[in-house]
Amino acid sequence: MDCPNRHGRMKLLRRTKTVTLGCSVWDFDADLYVCPVCGQEVDPPEKDPAPGAASPDP
Q1: Considering its fold, how many domains does the chain have in total?
Q2: Three-class secondary structure assignment of the chain
Q3: What is the pLDDT of residue 57?
Q4: CB neighbourhood size of 33 (10 A)
Q5: Does a structural domain hold residue 30?
Q6: Which of 7, 13, 18, 40 shows the smallest number of beta carbons within 10 Å?
Q7: Residue 15 included in any domain
Q8: Hey, CA dihedral for 20, 22, 25, 26, is it positive or negative?
Q9: Dist CA 31 CA 33 (whole Å)
Q10: What is the pLDDT of residue 20?
Q11: Phi, psi of 32 (to 5 degrees)
């Protein structure tokens, strides 16, 4: 994947992210593409759901 700021190829890294909802805080590992020049983080494209998995659309 290329950097949206035109810095070339991004590296796929696993980073620990933190989410706070109300009084609850969760840490989780996320795979992200990261630009080594500007530090821009981009989520990887969604993968196709497993066969037989529920569709997110109602």
Answers
A1: 1
A2: CECCCCCCECEEEEEEEEEEECCEEEEEEEEEEECCCCCCEECCCCCCCCCCCCCCCC
A3: 54
A4: 19
A5: yes
A6: 18
A7: yes
A8: negative
A9: 7
A10: 96
A11: -135, 150
Q: Which residues, listed in sequence order, are joined to residue 13 by a DSSP beta bridge?
A: 32
Q: Is residue 1 part of a domain?
A: no
Q: CB of 25 within 8 A of CB of 40?
A: no
Per-residue pLDDT tens for 8-58? 999 999 999 999 999 999 999 999 999 999 999 999 987 766 666 555 555
* 33: containing domain: 11-42
Whether pTM exceeds 0.70: no
Among candidate residues 49, 27, 37, the one with its CA nearest the CA of residue 3? 37
